[in-house]
Amino acid sequence: MNELGITVIGRDRPGIVADVAEVLARLGANLTDSTMTRLRGHFAMTLICVGPTAAEVETALAPLAADGQLLATVRAVTPDGATPSAGEPYVMAVHGADRMGIVAAITRVLADAGGNVTDLSTRLVGSLYVVVAEVELPPGVADALAGRLAGAAAGLGVEVSLRPAEPDLL
């Protein structure tokens, strides 16, 4: 089985998710992980699927991008396997006046502590900038990391919080 990483970006319009999903279903591709969002009127989707070859998917998605409004990319990826995470799940939230470098500074503090960002979302609403990230932290580093994050946030003029993530109910 081929495992593929696919991205689709472009000007948002109704039906893009349905169009992409239908193309993949016709090819017998199984969507295993995906994320989609609208960013200031632009559609952005990333997904992992298993099944057909990258060339088959590229050919099948080409008509969706023919008018130049969408860009679809496909590449083979190496399966992760069933390796469980060794990290502890946390949610980090940052908010404050928008300024250059907030994400760079805060994620550097996380990375230096061995933290891994597993999901990140940012929004600019007027002059308020909000970051919400799901992170995995090495066991036992959360308290010290919270202090380092607070120091970095103070230097940026923003507020930060770090709390244990609620377990998923699936």
Characterize the structure shown.
Strands 2-3-1-4 form a four-stranded antiparallel β-sheet, with helices on one face. Strands 6-7-5-8 form a four-stranded antiparallel β-sheet, covered by helices on one side. A hairpin with a 2-residue loop joins β6 and β7 (128-137). It has 170 residues and is an alpha+beta fold. The protein contains four helices and eight strands. The two termini are 26 Å apart. The mean pLDDT is 93. Helix content is 29%, strand content 44%.
For this entry, give a set of tags.
four-stranded antiparallel β-sheet, alpha+beta, 170 residues
Helical fraction equals 25-40%
Kindly report the spatial arrangement of strands forming the biggest sheet. 2-3-1-4
Largest sheet properties: 4 strands, antiparallel
Beta-sheet strand percentage? 35-45%
Order of helices and strands: EHEEHEEHEEHE
The residue ranges in which pLDDT falls below 50 over 5 or more consecutive positions are none
Structural class: alpha+beta
- Silhouette: globular
- Can you count the beta strands? 8
Q: Helical element count?
A: 4
* Overall average pLDDT: 93
What radius of gyration results from the CA coordinates? 19 Å
The end-to-end distance, rounded to whole angstroms, is: 26 Å
